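Form 7-S
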Amino acid sequence: MKNILLILSSILILSCNSEKKGIENGTFDLYENDSIIGTIYRIKNFQIEKYLDNSELIAKVEYQTDSTYLVSGIEKKKIGIDTIVWLNTYKKITENKYRIVAKPNNSNLEYEYRGILLKTQEKIPKEYVNKLNKLNEK
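Output:
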């Protein structure tokens, strides 16, 4: 019986770690209602979000558990929605595809964002790699 519990515990730990490992680094397309709305370039604790309207946002990612992380904008002049810290919950639904639900963590705002992150590649374009690596050094 102890061996079965040990094996099941190991499988659960490995599956949780692999989910975080899969979402921690890479290039992701962000989908809302089956339509792409932007691309996220992420290395460890920072990401650059580039949207179809050519707007960009740099955000800090703080992993809380094996299925949650906080996202907050790091722009110098935060206004409106940029002041919100988002609690993202994610779940792997297929290989390289994650369902995310984001809710305000530091606000009473009754809002919930639902989307899909599709990891398109492990590599990140050079123009973003340098900036993300510098942010992670601090």
